[in-house]
Amino acid sequence: xxxxxxxxxxxxxxxxxxxxxxxxxxxxxxxxxxxxxxxxxxxxxxxxxxxxxxxxxxxxxxxxxxxxxxxxxxxxxxxxxxxxxxxxxxxxxxxxxxxxxxxxxxxxxxxxxxxxxxxxxxxxxxxxxxxxxxxxxxxxxxxxxxxxxxxxxxxxxxxxxxxxxxxxxxxxxxxxxxxxxxxxxxxxxxxxxxxxxxxxxxxxxxxxxxxxxxxxxxxxxxxxxxxxxxxxxxxxxxxxxxxxxxxxxxxxxxxxxxxxxxxxxxxxxxxxxxxxxxxxxxxxxxxxxxxxxxxxxxxxxxxxxxxxxxxxxxxxxxxxxxxxxxxxxxxxxxxxxxxxxxxxxxxxxxxxxxxxxxxxxxxxxxxxxxxxxx
Amino acid sequence: xxxxxxxxxxxxxxxxxxxxxxxxxxxxxxxxxxxxxxxxxxxxxxxxxxxxxxxxxxxxxxxxxxxxxxxxxxxxxxxxxxxxxxxxxxxxxxxxxxxxxxxxxxxxxxxxxxxxxxxxxxxxxxxxxxxxxxxxxxxxxxxxxxxxxxxxxxxxxxxxxxxxxxxxxxxxxxxxxxxxxxxxxxxxxxxxxxxxxxxxxxxxxxxxxxxxxxxxxxxxxxxxxxxxxxxxxxxxxxxxxxxxxxxxxxxxxxxxxxxxxxxxxxxxxxxxxxxxxxxxxxxxxxxxxxxxxxxxxxxxxxxxxxxxxxxxxxxxxxxxxxxxxxxxxxxxxxxxxxxxxxxxxxxxxxxxxxxxxxxxxxxxxxxxxxxxxx
Lengths: 374, 374
Prior knowledge:
- The structure is a homodimer.
- The first copy, chain A, is of the alpha/beta class.
- Chain A is about 45% helix and about 20% strand.
- The first copy, chain A, folds into 2 domains: about 5-265, TIM Barrel; about 275-370, no CATH class.
- The interface of A and B includes residues 44, 312, 319, 325 and 331 of A.
């Protein structure tokens, strides 16, 4: 099949690579970070805010939108893009991870997932075919197959069974797909067992998808294990398709996973931490409520060019946070998302210049320095 | 003294008038509505959002900023404008109304107001001189005298004593003022007693201020009483100075008070109600959580040109509100403030064309129509 991905640069001394993905709503430069817009809004951000920080694509959650306001309503409104006033690409997850997170409130069978709504406790059912048709109704640019996420730790048998079921579901997803022009990605599972990961790569690539996600990572395993699984799985996946690590991660995780060949990321960390007053900076994390920022006239990050850093002092950001003002969430979210999106841009530039390893070294050197204050 | 106010148009058949006020941070067209930015931020709005909806001047609260982060800190940062990144005019209230609202937590003596902080219970003191010097430190364009607000109902004696004390405090405020170019407004009290209001007007005008506020209104009295007090007091005040009704009000109140000669208003209603999902429209109030808006593709107000109405359906606004998303507060606040600010603009245009009475009639006719839905 023809790929929607084009490889533009391959690092000569590591797996890091730059490329682009063509979607119905435009082309995405990779590696890319996707801000999370769970309920058809990236918390606290207008679409214009997202464009201003350089977001290329956002993620929305099938599970949440299926429950509220419902995919049928969104379809009536011409799809998610029109409903939420975002004209750029959107990736929707399948709901697999959310159903996994429901734990005892969900039951997985061959047929699909039965689960209780976290909103009203009603019992709902989602089959692999449903997951695709819901995402078709939402009209996202990139759809994800319904998968079964594997907890950490998990026995080999548990991991093996879930991986096999994910493969059977993936096949059903591919079959259910209608020719809408939306891309469909398969999800590689396998837990922390390298041979099961390899098996899952084989399952997925033999079905054939428009891209491949590494699922079931960042579920509690040590970072080194996550990096190892990522490196191994990414290396097995065909280079002609985008590779996406789901739900990852910290700035360090992004650098390490790009180093290992990953193209796409999503994570709630920049948005959630922003609302909790934690700012990501080029020198590490800054907790804005700390007393030392009371009268600090510096911007959150002196190396940052975002709207927040161009216009507001740490003292003002601290005041807003202490006073529980909505603007605190807004300004902190703008800064954190800009940091993540800009970090990816720097990585793309480093890859294009074939100096990703130098970039990675400088990234860590910078973080060893203290955050300067007045 | 030279007035900072210029009368531009006077209605021929009612007291409504249009003019402008010159301040250190620019000229304001009146009648004007001032969005409330209690804690050095209009809740949920960036300065750019405020400019986009056409806000000319905002209000900040001396009491809140005195407590947190403190006027000394704000002065270190070059004043409130720089601290909060708003370059337009700012009016600061004196703290009189907030201290009044503290009820048993505050004690008024000849010297000033002793009160307990709502943040940490510490005992604080604010004299009329302090109120001025705090506002000078904040660097607002328009400062208000410290006054003693009169509850409703109040005995004649109570009202008389408070009015006399307000006059003595006003004199101390004027004396304490330094030549910073900031304007200082006196506050007319008098409760709901016309002769005490007249006496207070005499007290204030004989001291001489840059503008005059009508204080102690909208404190529980019926609308008709408020309108009567407003009409009587506004008529007694000299036409060469701006007239400001503090803490008022609903769209109907704004129209009625402009009709009676008022130039300036502030109220938390558009911002607070926005966060509670109540939208002001040309046809009256719309409660966005109502089930009828579930699949309504219309904008909040079909006659509105704000960012929210240009880009989002009632169905999306309802979804955001039900899902408790921050964007609900943002979009609703943009709409409500735009409604208030635009209502004032329409009134200014009607006054300039000497058709304010027609405007007022059409305003009420429009509100008798039902809000159309699909």
